[in-house]
TrEMBL record:
The keyword Ion transport does not apply. Belongs to the bacterial histone-like protein family. It holds the Pfam family Bac_DNA_binding. GO terms for cellular component: cytosol. GO terms for biological process: chromosome condensation. The keyword DNA-binding applies. It comes from Agromyces seonyuensis. This is Integration host factor. InterPro entries: Hist_DNA-bd, IHF-like_DNA-bd_dom_sf. Signal peptide: none annotated. CDD domains: SPO1_TF1_like.
Length: 95
């Protein structure tokens, strides 16, 4: 596991410094990116940035589960999840 992490504020500051844009501009662009990503995935559209990542909505079938406190069997309804796949450039950067 990575010992370091980068939160959104730090990411915005780094991008602003490397591009010469203001932090407010970078923050607005990231906000727009995440909003469009959420809208696309919510509507079932796959978002792909070749070489970097792909994000898509996946379906989960209904299944039987167990309540860990009581041991009672429960029915878990069908639903959706999100799958994020790393692209080749992102995988290469992790080496």
């Amino acid at each position: 596991m990575a010992d370091k992490s980068l939160n959104k504020t730090e990411l915005v500051a780094k991008i602003a410094a490397s591009t010469g844009q203001s932090q407010a501009t970078v923050d607005a662009v990231l906000g727009g990116l995440f909003a469009e990503l959420a809208d696309a995935v919510g509507s079932g559209t796959k978002v792909s940035i070749p070489g970097w990542l792909a994000v898509e909505r996946t379906s989960r079938a209904a299944r039987t589960g167990r309540n860990p406190q009581t041991g009672a069997t429960i029915e878990i309804p069908a639903g959706f999840s999100v799958k994020v796949s790393a692209g080749s450039k992102l995988k290469a950067a992790a080496k």
